[in-house]
Amino acid sequence: MALNQQEKQQIVKTHGRHEKDTGSPEVQISTLTKRIADLTEHLKTNKKDYSCQRGLMTMVSKRRRLQNYFKANCTPEEYQKLIKKLKLRK
């Protein structure tokens, strides 16, 4: 369920500001989006994994807070570009 090193490097390469960027909001939102997708697939087969459900809700709310921060501190074009690239709502 956790991202392996190659997946994380690929996300940093596509969304990061430089090659070792792991702290920018774009990269954090992207990694959380990937982890949320993986957990969603896991929960489709394991419906009663309630601890995993709780972790998923935590990640979704953390991503929402990061999105709000990114929206407040960047240009609207950058925000829309990220949302469209990750195929997120709002």
Describe the overall structure:
The chain is mainly α and about 90 residues long. The protein has one domain (about 25-85): Helix Hairpins. Helices cover about 75% and strands about 0% of the residues. It contains 4 helices and no strands. The protein has helices at about 5-15, 25-45, 50-70, 75-85. α1 (about 5-15) crosses α2 and α2 packs antiparallel against α3 (about 50-70). The radius of gyration is 14 Å and the shape is globular. It starts with a helix and ends with a helix. The model has no long low-confidence stretch (mean pLDDT about 95).
Question: Summary?
Answer:
With 90 residues, the chain is mostly helical. Helix content is 73%, strand content 0%. The chain has one domain (24-86): Helix Hairpins (Orthogonal Bundle).
Mean pLDDT: 93
Helix content: over 70%
CATH class: Mainly Alpha
What's the structural domain tally?
Answer: 1
* Shape call: globular
Whole-number radius of gyration?
14 Å
How many helices? The count is 4
Question: Which segments are poorly predicted (pLDDT under 50) over 5 or more consecutive residues?
Answer: none
Order of helices and strands: HHHH
CATH fold-level name: Helix Hairpins
